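Two folds, back to back.
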Amino acid sequence: MKKTTNKTRGLIKGGPTAVLFSAFVHFGMLLFAGGLVVFTMVQKQEKKFEPPPPVKRPKMELKKPKVKVKKRVRPTSSARIVSKNIQGMTQIQLPEISGISMGLGNDLGGFEMMPDPSEITLLGAKSSMAVGNDWEGTFYSLSLDRSGKPSSDSYERILQRFFQSGWNPRSLAPYYRWPQKLYTTFIYLPTIPFEQIPRSFGIPDELNTEQWLVHYTGKIKSKPGGKYRLRGRGLAVLAVRINTVEVGFFGWKSLRDTLTDWRSSSEESFQYYQGRSSVIVGDWFELEPDVPVDIDIVFGDFNGYDSQATLCVEENGVYYPKNRDGGPILPVFKTARIPGHLIEKLEYLTTAGDQDFENDLMFNSY
């Protein structure tokens, strides 16, 4: 006969019950530890910087410095000087200042503005060499019209209109005028290749300058006054006017007969030489003491070969030494001393005794 056993549903006593209880305990501890960590992180705040308490410094008593000041001495009133002959300010004459009008002859020479000596050519500089004492030169290419296109006008016909207009530059308006001007204080251009002339103005070789003319304008003045005349030679044109009066045409005779009625009255014309050319003697002209006058000088050529334009001046009643041909050694016509490096160049290009480059005779206009 089988024994009947009672089966109980629910918790099992013994080992399984202990395991289950341990799990409950560990779960509770885990919940407690997690909450503690979260609570600590939330409650933890960033520490704030608190400055240290101020340090108490003892106050120092500042003493006001004492500076000894000298007693102000009151100046005694100066004696008043009374002149019996008091002139008005308009009657006071300032003493004459010498050296301002010496041009290049006295280095800086007062108020002159000197360009770079290396940029000064035989035809002048691109800026004023001696303020008020230089002549302004304009270059015309008569081979071209004013727009730079070839011109069919002949050189002789163009110059005829220029001379007949009274040397009016407007007669040259239809032809090409180079914008860069040159400023010179003397006219003495020995025989040189003609291309050196447009190059001195900065004109490129590509520009047609076979027919050309340079027109200088300015003033001259003689402080003591006197009677003078020019001697020179030009290839093919060289002419000078003083106060609108033509005092010499020193170019080719064939052009002179076509362009002007001027003729030399001196028997010494064509008797003496400068280089390879015989010299023409101009007319006498008078300058009043310290009175400036206008001057125009034109020179040019049309053959595209060598060119020349030389001017020397002779003062009436003055004796000049003679050169190898018996002609007078005359000073170069100038308003200021010629720069030293140009004198060296001129001496190399000319014959000694044909002219005097260092003479003191100058026609400063200021």
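---
second:
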Amino acid sequence: MPRAAKKPPENLTLIAEWPLSPAATLGSSVRAKGILLEIRARLPLKLRKALDVRGSALILRMAEGAEADFAAISATVEKALVGIESLEIIPREIEDILTIKTSERHRWLKDGRLPSAGTRTVKLRGRARKITFHVFDPRMVEDLLNGDRVEAWREEDAETAAENRRRAAWKAKLKREAAKTQPVSPDSGRDAKTGQKLAGWDEFEREFLR
């Protein structure tokens, strides 16, 4: 069955653009998309897709004849962008900004190296369930990025893991040696010197020790 012809794009002659500063995006396309979604949430549902992000800039495109909506959305965007650099950073954004794994985020959050700025609870679209997650201060994240702290933390974690492995191996060795030197109980049915099972012990135990 042949595909239906695509509807030709509308003549989007009303265009506005708002560049996002490096302090706002911290060099992350994921963060830029997060800012877009944050601002879209303040717009009427049917008009949200008129606002998009290209690179590090928000772009509003609307068709001729929608001047009133265009002006209203533009005003909302401009208002929302005031102080946008202070918008809290969510988990997927901090992972992209710092180039870290989810496991690293969890570990460093737990041990205090990655301080939380609080939590946010959101409802998943189309679902009744809500999720709660930690958010982070963008200036703290910027300091970590500029100070190259992440690599230092990874080196610390590697050293700690190596030390833990050495301790585990040493404990296992001590346990094995202790097992070898542990005295054999006289009624165990084993030779006190060799530790081997004595011949006929099972029959003797059934006849006389029970």
